[in-house]
Amino acid sequence: MNLFVANISPTVNEGALKALFETFGKTSSVKIVVDKYTGESKGFGFVDMLDDRDAMEAMDKLSNVSFFGKNLVVSKARPKTSSIL
Fold it and tell me: pLDDT for 13-29, tens place per residue?
């Protein structure tokens, strides 16, 4: 299950985010979105967990938890939509 994670502190790297989520189960990928010009974190990212039950537990237990001074917002990621007009 792909999870959307918001309100990520700018000091958090993908390794730290992966370690946090792997306390609930295996992850297949972790991506913090960065500004393409500055390289700075945009404060959100995605964590793909292999087991849906583990993902649901992580979502439940990590929502509104302080991580590096900011309360995380964790939800199920919505599918990417096409912007073809």
Answer: 999 999 999 999 999 99
> Nearest CA to 74 among 85, 82, 54?
54
Domain ranges of the chain: 2-76
The Cα 84–Cα 5 span in angstroms is: 26
Burial of 3 (0-12, 13-18, 19+ CB in 10 A): buried
pTM of the model: 0.90
| Alpha helix positions (H), the chain | 14-21, 52-62
Class of domain 2-76: alpha beta
